Amino acid sequence: MNKCLILSHLREAHEELTRTIARIESEAAVDEIEFEIAVAHAYNHLNTAWNARAVSDERMAASSEDDFYAWRAFPSDISMGR
Questions:
Q1: HEC string of the chain?
Q2: pTM of the entire structure?
Q3: Residue 43 within any structural domain of the chain
Q4: Residue 5 CB-density burial (10 A; 0-12 exposed, 13-18 middle, 19+ buried)
Q5: Over the stretch 19-72, which tens digit does the pLDDT of each residue have?
Q6: Residue 57 falls within a domain, yes or no?
Q7: Cβ(5)–Cβ(55) under 8 Å?
Q8: How many domains does the chain divide into?
Q9: In whole angstroms, what is the distance from residue 45 CA to residue 16 CA?
Q10: What is the domain extent for residue 31?
């Protein structure tokens, strides 16, 4: 596993979730579009942490646009139940 890559993406997801929770708790006006953007950003990093967990730093540096979209997609190898 590429611990540096995983930690980087998990930290980004954590920061986004922390920021979003704080905004909602403070009763700041968070509209549905802002919420969607925040959740999509968190999912992007969580999904990449999982899907690219075995990718080397060299492979990541040479990644293509197709890789970017494949890595950020919802994992097909994690069961969410039914």
A1: CCHHHHHHHHHHHHHHHHHHHHHHHCCCCCCHHHHHHHHHHHHHHHHHHHHCCCCCHHHHHCCCHHHHHHHHCCCCCCCCCC
A2: 0.89
A3: yes
A4: buried
A5: 999 999 997 778 899 999 999 999 999 999 999 999 999 999 999 999 999 999
A6: yes
A7: yes
A8: 1
A9: 10
A10: 3-72
